[in-house]
């Protein structure tokens, strides 16, 4: 980089980023294609993503939060449930996202289904799941993942990998395989109650289809088309 003007030397960049793009040639998405509710439409698209989408983890979702001062952060988690009440993921409540949501419940979820030239963007407010619901899901996790929920002080600074491995080894000795691991009190779910859900379908010449469900104050949904 030349320090005088801040321009990156082209030779220092291994790819020509300006020319990197794909031309989407998928079929479009019209208002008549949509289901009556965003959850029904999500279920349709999710089934296609999980079966025909060529995705490594179709339930991977980027969760974006902001703290009380408006400082944003994003990370990828796994969606573990969805229904008419919202979209559920689990985490350490002491993690950065957990702390953010305690201060500011507004959240965005992004499902980046690139091989299908599709995205789903959910915006809404997050609230904690009940402890019974959390415990029921925790029991479905592999034994090692249950121990990991205790071993990791998620988002906290640690001295090194050895510290994390030692904490896990101690827990593995305390709770051997087939012995029930208690649910950590600092661990649980968030349910994102959608206020808007956008379905994005890539189209040729960057003229993408963007259809968004928006919750009505009295119940139900209206659909609006967004310019790409």
From TrEMBL:
Pyridoxamine 5'-phosphate oxidase N-terminal domain residues are: 57-168
Cofactor: record remark: Binds 1 FMN per subunit.
Biological process (GO), any one? pyridoxine biosynthetic process
So where does substrate get bound? 21-24, 80, 137, 141, 145, 206-208
Query: Quick one: which pathway?
Result: Cofactor metabolism; pyridoxal 5'-phosphate salvage; pyridoxal 5'-phosphate from pyridoxine 5'-phosphate: step 1/1; Cofactor metabolism; pyridoxal 5'-phosphate salvage; pyridoxal 5'-phosphate from pyridoxamine 5'-phosphate: step 1/1
Outline the extent of the Pyridoxine 5'-phosphate oxidase dimerisation C-terminal domain.
Answer: 187-228
Q: Does the keyword Zinc apply?
A: no
UniProt KW keywords = Flavoprotein, FMN, Oxidoreductase, Pyridoxine biosynthesis
Return the InterPro entries for the record: Pyridox_Oxase, Pyridox_Oxase_CS, Pyridox_Oxase_N, Pyridoxamine_oxidase_dimer_C, Split_barrel_FMN-bd
A GO MF term: pyridoxamine phosphate oxidase activity
Q: What is the purpose of this protein?
A: Catalyzes the oxidation of either pyridoxine 5'-phosphate (PNP) or pyridoxamine 5'-phosphate (PMP) into pyridoxal 5'-phosphate (PLP).
Write down what this protein is called: Pyridoxine/pyridoxamine 5'-phosphate oxidase
What is the organism field in this record?
Streptomyces caelestis
Q: Which gene encodes it?
A: pdxH
């Amino acid at each position: 980089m030349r320090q005088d003007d801040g321009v990156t030397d082209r030779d220092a960049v291994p790819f020509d980023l300006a020319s990197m793009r794909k031309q989407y040639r998928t079929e479009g998405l019209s208002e008549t294609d949509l289901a009556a509710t965003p959850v029904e439409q999500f279920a349709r698209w999710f089934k296609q993503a999980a079966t025909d989408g060529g995705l490594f983890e179709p339930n991977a979702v980027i969760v974006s939060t902001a703290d009380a001062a408006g400082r944003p952060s994003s990370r990828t988690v796994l969606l573990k449930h969805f229904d008419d009440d919202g979209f559920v993921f689990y985490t350490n409540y002491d993690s950065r996202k957990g702390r953010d949501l305690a201060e500011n419940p507004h959240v965005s979820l992004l499902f980046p289904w690139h091989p299908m030239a599709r995205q789903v963007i959910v915006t809404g407010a997050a609230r904690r799941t009940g402890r019974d619901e959390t415990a029921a899901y925790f029991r479905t996790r592999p034994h090692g993942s249950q121990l990991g929920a205790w071993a990791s002080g998620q988002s906290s600074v640690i001295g090194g990998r050895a510290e994390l491995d030692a904490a896990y080894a101690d827990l593995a000795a305390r709770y051997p395989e087939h012995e029930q691991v208690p649910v950590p009190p600092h661990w649980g779910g968030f349910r994102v109650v959608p206020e808007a859900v956008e379905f994005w379908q890539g189209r040729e010449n960057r003229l993408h289809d963007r259809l968004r469900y928006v919750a009505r104050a009295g119940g139900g949904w209206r659909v609006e088309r967004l310019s790409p």
